[in-house]
Amino acid sequence: MEQNDFGKMLRRLREEAGYKSQTRFAAACGVDNSTIARLERGETKPTPETLKKLAPCLGVPYEELLAAAGYLGRAGERRFSSCRRIPVLGRIRAGVPIMAVENFERELDIPADWRADFALQVESDSMIGVGIHEGDYAVCRQASAPKPGDIVVAVHDIAAGFSEATLKYYSNDPEKGPVLRAANPEYEDIILKNDYRIVGVMVALLKNSPPPYQRYTEYLSTRDYTLKEWDQVIQIASQCGVRPEQVLEIIKMQWQMAQRLFERQEKYRSE
């Protein structure tokens, strides 16, 4: 994308995000107003550091801005002005540290300012609901103590001295305890036991190629099938005169109560 085209895109995204003035937008992002003005006029190319500040305010992924500015192409291409390489995990040896050379399959180029240690190439459709497709690269940092809601890499020990890695959401279920949860209703929760260990948290996503339209239709089909289970609930709520926002508040309140109960139980167990 040419600098002038990037400037037009930036202005459109800024206005769509609700920032009518460059000054207010610059203040929200922590960037000089003159920088925003030059970017929108196409007079300068944004640095990766500037793009990282703009992305949250614009409501778009950092990688999307990197690609639009010409830093990021297809996964593995060296288009960054400043880059470094991280290993891509392959077949994982059981009992060997995750960052051991024996576990590395190849290397991947990423922006130098990304805080990441390794990458995992996605091999299933378990996270399709959040736009993570087979062939994509999940860029991760080493971590063993994730927060609920993090997308994690968990290693499952299998036979023959090897382990397999899976990419899932980490969640604290009030009934099941810590679980790995897919973003696809066709996959059941995985209860975290001794044969699973968390080795990383996803910090970015690199697309290997644009997802085909078939992926979208498959997701819609799965989603529509799952939503049928809610038809009766929606019908009864409507008959009782309960509005959607009221149902949402009730669910939030019940979920918060369940979380507090779970935390108290965990505290008692540890004492």
TrEMBL record:
It comes from the Bacteria. SMART domains: HTH_XRE. Signal peptide: none annotated. The keyword Hydrolase applies. It holds the Pfam family Peptidase_S24. Keywords: Hydrolase. One of its GO terms (molecular function) is DNA binding. PROSITE patterns: HTH_CROC1 (PS50943). Residues 10-65 form the HTH cro/C1-type domain. Gene3D superfamilies: lambda repressor-like DNA-binding domains (1.10.260.40), Umud Fragment, subunit A (2.10.109.10). InterPro entries: Cro/C1-type_HTH, Lambda_DNA-bd_dom_sf, LexA-like, LexA/Signal_pep-like_sf, LexA_repressor, Peptidase_S24_S26A/B/C. Its EC number is 3.4.21.88. The keyword Hydrolase applies. This is LexA repressor LexA. It comes from Thermacetogenium phaeum (strain ATCC BAA-254 / DSM 26808 / PB).
